[in-house]
Amino acid sequence: MAGRQAKRVLVVGLDCAAPRFLFGPERFDMPNAQRLAANGCWGRLRSCDPPITVPAWACMTSGKDPGVLGCYGFRNRRDYSYEGMATANASAIREKRVWDILSREGRKVVVLGVPQTYPVKPVNGWLVADFLAPDTRADYTYPKTLKGELEKAVGTYLLDVKDFRTDEKDALLDRIFALMHNRFDAAHYLMTGKPWDFFMMVEMGVDRLHHAFWKYCDPGHPKYEPGNPYEHVFREYYQALDARLGELLALAGDETAVMVVSDHGARAMLGGICINQWLIENGWLTLAEAPNGRTRIEDCTIDWPRTRAWASGGYYGRVFLNVEGREPQGVIPAAEYDVCLNELIAAIEAMPGPGGQPLGNRALRPRDLYRETNGVPPDLFVYFGGLGWRSVGAVGFDGIYTFENDTGSDDANHDFDGIFIMDDKTGRMGGELKGLHLMDVAPTILDWFGVAVPADMQGKVIG
Q: What is the per-residue pLDDT across 171-202, written as a single tens digit (0 to 9) for each?
């Protein structure tokens, strides 16, 4: 809908917010979000591949996919060595994000807690970095003076929920609520105290809540117990979140175009697939010595001349081939790369579940997903059971199936669809929208401002 104009734009990001809790028969009573949707439009927002916080928010705000960004997860290979993994912070993102383009156009921006914004970079306005900042002793704001100003206004600024994989749930729930209120207090201060044209914030507490409490709230989770003391914490949190959203909407005013979005959704985690254990049992990976109990693959000595593939764990799997002339001790001839990869894909996708039933795995080549593949992509992404199962990277298990997470207590996996609610104040759009992708967000924001959408953005203008 080119040519529409918005005086100001507010984007509220809710990391991991799930469509089932905002739309449809299971939705919670969230009057502010629902009024926003009724006045505008709403729908499911398809995440990127892989559907994970890093790089999903960068894809959303740049309008470009992970292959173009060269960022395939929180940790990526620096090179084709066996040790070179690096955390993908803001330095990994070299493409312009929507606030960079608006800054160049002279618009005043406020960016609060959006993932992959630490280390901070200059903007035409104010920026408060994300949870990738090591702690609040770091310079996590732009300009630097904003740090003291913000802390004077809201007290200690909370970058994230500490220890959200703990089994001490009462104290954890307090910390999750505290993060949400702290983030919205900071938003209130910046929204009222700074002149802005574009304002974007991300609240991480939804993600932490889902991972910590899913089995308590979802009757579909295999470990759910009716009547448990945390049975309604999702509803309580989402409703408290909605109240804070209502405060921001009131501050923003009737002429501000608004989006409420999430980077991906969530679903019950049914268990874990020990991917490196499976690679060992199927002759792809050989260890120089047997592990002493459950051991991270990074702490194992791998017999590289006898290894064709190894993997990293997480909410999805990343599999790397040991290719001759590419890896230091590669064994797969380059001419046999595709044959070997196809063999591995077929074996992974044929993997049965613990009861012998088809698990429904998908093994995907990055080159088939992206326009280009910058950086060092994995050779395969693996979604176990359509993201119903986590990828467990550690070895030393009795079999390939586990119902304990190797990185601490966690009940949820990510899902492909996040949320999208939009009120552009034109009255020209309404109801449910289909076919939305998170890369559509950046071009739509630029269109609202009448700023030309760069030709290399992959998303479309919504409307």
A: 999 999 999 999 999 999 999 999 999 999 99
Find the mean pLDDT for residues 32-39.
96
* pLDDT of 1 strictly over 50: no
Q: Would you call 84 exposed, middle or buried from its count of C-beta atoms within 10 A (0-12, 13-18, 19+)?
A: exposed
The count of domains in the chain is: 2
Distance CA 115, CA 54 (A): 7
State percent of the chain over pLDDT 90.
94
**C-alpha span between 36 and 421 (Å, rounded):** 7
Same domain (yes/no): 276, 207: no
Measured between alpha carbons, how far is 456 from 64 in angstroms, rounded to an integer? 8
Nearest C-alpha neighbor of 269 from the set 419, 405, 362: 405
pLDDT at 83 over 50: yes
What pLDDT score does 4 carry?
Answer: 66
47 in any annotated domain: yes
* 30-38 long-range Cβ contacts below 8 angstroms, 24+ apart: 30/238, 30/239, 30/241, 30/242, 31/242, 31/246, 32/242, 32/243, 32/245, 32/246, 32/249, 33/242, 33/245, 33/260, 33/421, 36/249, 36/258, 36/260, 36/421, 36/423, 37/421, 37/423
Segments forming the whole domain that contains residue 347? 271-409
What gap in Å lies between CA 209 and CA 205, rounded to an integer?
6
Are residues 326 and 258 both part of a single domain? no
CATH of the domain at 134: 3.40.720.10
3 pLDDT above the threshold of 70: no
The 10s digit of each residue's pLDDT in 223-254 is 999 999 999 999 999 999 999 999 999 999 99
Close Cβ partners of 77 (under 8 Å, ≥ 6 residues apart):
84, 85, 86, 320, 375, 376, 378
Whether the predicted pLDDT of 126 surpasses 50? yes
Q: How far from the centroid of its chain's Cα atoms is residue 73's Cα?
A: 9
Task: Count the Cβ atoms, other than its own, within 10 Å of residue 2.
Answer: 9
Sign of CA dihedral 395, 391, 49, 441: negative
Question: Model confidence at 204, in pLDDT bands (50, 70, 90)?
Answer: very high
Alpha-carbon Rg for the chain in angstroms:
22
Instruction: Give domain status of residue 81, yes or no.
Output: yes
Q: Are residues 255 and 143 in the same domain?
A: yes
Do 102 and 121 belong together in one domain? Answer: yes
Is the residue at 380 inside a domain? yes
Strand partners, 23: none
User: Residue 369 corresponds to which tokens in the numbers above?
Assistant: 């997903």
* Element at 390 (helix H, strand E): strand 389-392
Q: Which two tokens stand for residue 98?
A: 């929507």
How far is Cα 321 from Cα 311, in angstroms, rounded to an integer?
9
**Is 0.90 surpassed by the pTM of this model?**
yes
